[in-house]
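Hi all, posting the design record for the shared folder.

TITLE: backbone redesign
STEP: 1 of 1
STRUCTURE INPUT:
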């Protein structure tokens, strides 16, 4: 056994030579091959030239499997040199030596090439399909080719009959590959380590069994003794994988071969004094080892599949960054918790937690630092609750904690403890210290309350907590519950209204200040609520957007507006375009283009009939700008709305083919009363004229505002002074009557517009005044 241990330690170097220089691989393979051939000759059976196994064949195949193809020449050269040295030492002729060298090279080359060709380049023994390829090409085809050459050469040298020699060489080579190659190419079984006591028990019991099998106790039952070893192979296959099975196979083979070569054991007794005993041993070991490796591969397949399923399930239920439960796992847990009635006065508690100013911290420390902060906060939350409680991360900086069997006092206590724990300083990148804070909304489920309702109540409490400042805790009371229920009702009603087409469009006329006639109409949404009557957009539009139904509402408005425009055009013999508001966020999603195309196709309206108004408060991204270019190329009119206040700036004008610039209603409201507002409007209008863009104003409510706009040369206006939004039918009647919206004495009458400062009046205002009509 010391020789075996020495040999395996030597050949074990091969697996680490994949990136080693060629000469090092040459030395390692050559010495290992020579060592194993000497071992094989010591196990030679009673028949002529019939060793029990030829482990050198297994070494040569493993070398080609483990080494890259550009080092195969080094490995084959080493094998040839080692074979030459051994044959010369044993006194064989040059012809025989050359034949055996050729056989030693053909065997691994055929096996390795076929394994690479058919999808097992590394000689892997798992999954089971890879093992079958190894058994077919490595254990059968390669040894058949190599032993055919060796047997032919030996027969010519009169060492024996070809059939006998070939069968002996083939089985010896095949068994050598079968017991040694897996030991070299396999890896120790993954997963939890097996107990040392179990490994010791396997080794000792197998050694005792082999000793009992190969000791001559007499009796006819001796021929059945080899089957005693089979359960130990199954034990190794089931518990220690292909690597453990390969180790056991090598040990048992060497031990059994030594006994049989000495004429002891059931095979020597059953096979007689000649080579038949060796052949019986080889066949028994080949079958036993093959089925054991196959069993180990199948067990590995099942284990890998189970591990993959567990990994996928864990990934599906847990947050990849923090390791906490994710939204899916949280949903399952809260529904299961609420399905079980709690004790009187106690129930399932829910804490909705939000990191305060996380975006600011993330911008300051970078995304890596932000992720580190989330991980540390998550760990603090997880370690600060009981084992039966669940902490989950449901969005970027939002966490939830599910508490089992608590009352409101318990929930508030846990929430305040968590807020204190999170507020402790956090060290990021071992150098940056931040002091996070977390706002928490808490709620305890009432009997029969559902998961969605409980979450809404806790979320409403969180909203109240954040309004009060950083690091606050609010526990939901009756008023918050009523508010949450009302919000749920509004959301349900909104969905039903969209489905029942209860949300309709009214249209506010846009008047040409030069002619006094209609220049367009802006669509405004109205909701005919069953209980509350006709609701303006301000009453429900924020809820629609918060529910993620903004795109669905936009589709409805586009279709209704274009249908109304087509009816007006048919009745009045032509009609100006109808305007629909769209946000920069919707444009950035890329869905607006398809919605417009669908609405145009459904209503059979030309693209020129539509005008899209984009609020300039939020900047456009690249996708939004590209969408506007595509729409303008179709013929859709584009309006930059809300200009002159808030976050709007001149940069919104660059690169977009705007057809109109509309002054924001907040600036219009100051006209006629604040000279500075008139100066701002004058500058905006002058800039728009310089760019060749028409101008408009929104929210005109007083005659002074209208006078100022006319005096400054604004092209279009809309607002309650001119007309409130009308139904599609009413506006159609006005168009048919060819209504003039402004008296002639108001239109284009130059009026003095006071300036806030001489500098502005003499520069911008003066330049604008030169452009005003006489």
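Okay, here is what came back for every position:
SEQUENCE:
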């Amino acid at each position: 056994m010391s020789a075996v241990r020495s040999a395996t330690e030597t050949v074990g170097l091969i697996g680490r030579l994949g990136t080693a220089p060629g000469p090092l691989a040459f030395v390692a393979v050559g010495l290992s091959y020579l060592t194993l051939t000497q071992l094989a000759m010591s196990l030679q059976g009673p028949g002529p030239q019939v060793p029990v196994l030829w482990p050198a064949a297994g070494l040569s195949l493993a070398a080609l499997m483990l080494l890259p193809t550009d080092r195969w020449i080094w490995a084959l050269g080493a094998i040839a040199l080692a074979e030459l040295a051994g044959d010369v030492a044993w006194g064989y002729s040059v012809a025989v030596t050359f034949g055996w060298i050729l056989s030693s090279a053909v065997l691994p080359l055929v096996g390795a090439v076929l394994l690479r060709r058919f999808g097992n380049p590394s000689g892997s023994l798992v999954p089971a399909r890879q093992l079958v390829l190894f058994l077919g090409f490595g254990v059968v085809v390669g040894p058949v080719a190599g032993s055919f050459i060796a047997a032919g050469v030996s027969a010519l040298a009169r060492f024996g009959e070809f059939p006998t020699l070939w069968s002996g060489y083939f089985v010896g080579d095949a068994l050598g590959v079968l017991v040694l190659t897996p030991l070299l190419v396999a890896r120790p079984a993954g997963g939890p380590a097996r107990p040392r006591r179990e490994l010791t028990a396997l080794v000792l019991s197998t050694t005792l069994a082999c000793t009992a099998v190969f000791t001559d106790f007499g009796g006819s039952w001796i021929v059945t003794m080899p089957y005693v070893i089979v359960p130990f192979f199954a034990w190794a296959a089931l518990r220690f994988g292909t690597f453990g099975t390969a180790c056991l196979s090598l040990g048992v083979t060497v031990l059994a071969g030594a006994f049989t070569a000495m004429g002891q054991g059931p095979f020597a007794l059953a096979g007689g004094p000649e080579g038949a005993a060796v052949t019986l041993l080889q066949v028994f070991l080949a079958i036993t080892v093959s089925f054991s490796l196959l069993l180990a591969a199948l067990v590995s397949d099942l284990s890998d599949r189970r591990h993959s399923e567990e990994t996928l399930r864990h990934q599906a239920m847990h947050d990849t960054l923090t390791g906490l439960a994710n939204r899916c796992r949280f949903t399952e847990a809260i529904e299961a918790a609420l399905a079980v009635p709690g004790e009187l006065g106690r129930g399932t508690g829910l804490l909705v937690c939000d990191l305060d100013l996380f975006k600011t911290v993330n911008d300051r420390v970078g995304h890596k630092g932000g992720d580190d902060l989330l991980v540390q906060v998550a760990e603090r939350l997880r370690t600060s609750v009981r084992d039966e409680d669940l902490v989950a991360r449901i969005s970027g900086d939002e966490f939830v904690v599910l508490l089992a069997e608590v009352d409101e006092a318990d929930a508030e206590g846990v929430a305040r403890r968590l807020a204190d724990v999170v507020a402790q300083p956090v060290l990021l990148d071992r150098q940056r210290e931040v002091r996070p804070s977390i706002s928490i909304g808490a709620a305890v489920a009432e009997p029969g309350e559902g998961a969605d309702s409980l979450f809404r109540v806790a979320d409403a409490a969180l909203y109240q907590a954040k309004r009060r400042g950083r690091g606050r805790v609010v526990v939901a009371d009756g008023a918050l519950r009523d508010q949450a229920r009302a919000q749920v009702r509004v959301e349900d009603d909104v969905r039903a209204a969209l489905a029942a087409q209860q949300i309709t469009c009214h249209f506010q006329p846009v008047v040409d200040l030069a002619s006094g006639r209609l220049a367009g109409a802006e669509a405004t949404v109205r909701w005919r609520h069953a209980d509350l009557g006709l609701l303006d957009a301000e009453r429900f539009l924020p809820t629609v957007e918060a529910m993620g139904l903004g795109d669905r509402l936009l589709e409805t408005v586009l279709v209704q507006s274009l249908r109304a425009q087509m009816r007006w055009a048919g009745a009045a013999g032509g009609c100006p375009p109808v305007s629909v508001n769209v946000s920069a966020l919707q444009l950035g999603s890329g869905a607006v283009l398809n919605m417009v195309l669908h609405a145009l196709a459904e209503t059979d309206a030309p693209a020129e009939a539509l005008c899209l108004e984009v609020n300039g408060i939020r900047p456009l991204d690249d996708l939004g700008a590209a969408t506007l270019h595509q729409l303008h190329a179709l013929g859709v009119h584009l309006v930059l709305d809300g200009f002159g206040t808030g976050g709007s700036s001149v940069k919104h004008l660059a690169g977009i083919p705007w057809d109109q610039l509309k002054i924001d209603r907040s600036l219009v409201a100051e006209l006629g009363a604040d000279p500075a507002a008139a100066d701002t409007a004058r500058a905006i209008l002058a800039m728009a004229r310089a760019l060749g863009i028409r101008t408009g104003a929104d929210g005109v409510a007083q005659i002074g505002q209208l006078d100022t706009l006319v005096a400054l040369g604004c092209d279009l206006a809309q607002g309650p002074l001119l007309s409130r939004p009308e139904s599609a039918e009413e506006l159609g009647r006005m168009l048919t009557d060819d209504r003039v919206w402004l008296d002639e004495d108001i239109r284009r009458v130059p009026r003095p517009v006071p300036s806030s400062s001489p500098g502005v009046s003499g520069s911008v205002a003066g330049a604008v005044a030169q452009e005003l009509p006489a």
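COMMENT: The two ends are 116 Å apart (CA to CA).
Let me know if anyone wants the other runs.
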